[in-house]
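Readers of this paper often ask what the protein records in our data store actually look like. An entry from our holdings is shown next, in its original layout:
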Amino acid sequence: MNLRLILRGLAVIASLAILGYLFQATPFAELLDERWIDRQVRGQGLAGDLIFLGVGALATAIGVPRQIVAFLGGYAYGIVAGTLLATLAAALGCALAFYYARLLGRGLVAQRFSGRIRKLDDFVHDHPFSMTLLIRLLPAGSNLVTNLVAGVSSVRALPFLAGSALGYVPQSAVFALVGSGVQLDPAARIGAAVVLFVASGVLGVRLYRRHRQGRSFDEAVDRKLGEAVGQDKP
């Protein structure tokens, strides 16, 4: 095995581990709460918007659930602007993780996880935008793992990133609604969010089952969706 390939792969693994540790061990972890929004984002104009986007993108790029960013977006900006900015932050984080894997770890990771990468390649090859959109609509799976696997696969960047961004919108809207200050009592907001979340999840599952054409994106996802791997259901 090529030494340069090994070193680049180890650099990917080590740097991700370091980023995760720093996120937990430094004040960065404390940024993602309402107090930080009140101090650094609300009322700060364009500078606050850019801070929100930058921190949200970095957080989602290293594995922080994008739903947290959407909740804080709703808290800071309301449901509409919060949804848009949280979706943009998640899309930027997706691009960061995607290109990070593609530029630094493609060779070694492709050898180490060739089976999973082949599944993704096969799943999105013919229709990368629409099939990526299906993946993002599913109420299961890891955003970070999908971004990294896509980065070391042969999927084209633009359709993958565009499909991801559009697929992020439903859950971003749901969690922005929960975090927003709209004139609804908390129980009504949470109830509406639950209904929207279930509806978007059901839509994602139905579309996945209908359009995957016998292919499986991820065995664990199939199990979570209550399917036998490799079987289609109506």
In short: Residues 79-104 form the longest helix (26 residues).
